[in-house]
Amino acid sequence: EIVSRDWSSDVCSSDLDHLVCLNCGKVEEFFDPGIEERQHAVASERGFHLQEHSLALYATCVKADCPNRS
């Protein structure tokens, strides 16, 4: 599936995390400042300077109006 991005936003593409539906494979990108801050804090607490990261959350959709649910 192709995911569209708004490249005009202030969010760097490497800061986007992903929700992956286990039912249909749909991928939704999201940005959460709290998650970003925590990832940097965890790296720093362990003596690292975070350069890049990848976070994918695998879940099942519970939206009643989801067009991808069967």
Topology (elements, then pairings):
Layout lengths: L16 E5 L5 E4 L2 H13 L10 E4 L11
Summarize the structure.
The protein has 70 residues and is an alpha+beta fold.
Overview of this structure, please?
This protein has 70 residues and is of the alpha+beta class. It contains 1 helix and 3 strands. Strand 1 and strand 2 (27-30) form a beta hairpin. The longest helix is centred in the middle third of the chain and has 13 residues, at 33-45. The radius of gyration is 15 Å and the shape is elongated. It starts with 16 loop residues before the first strand and ends in an 11-residue tail after the last strand. The model is unreliable at 1-5 (pLDDT under 50).
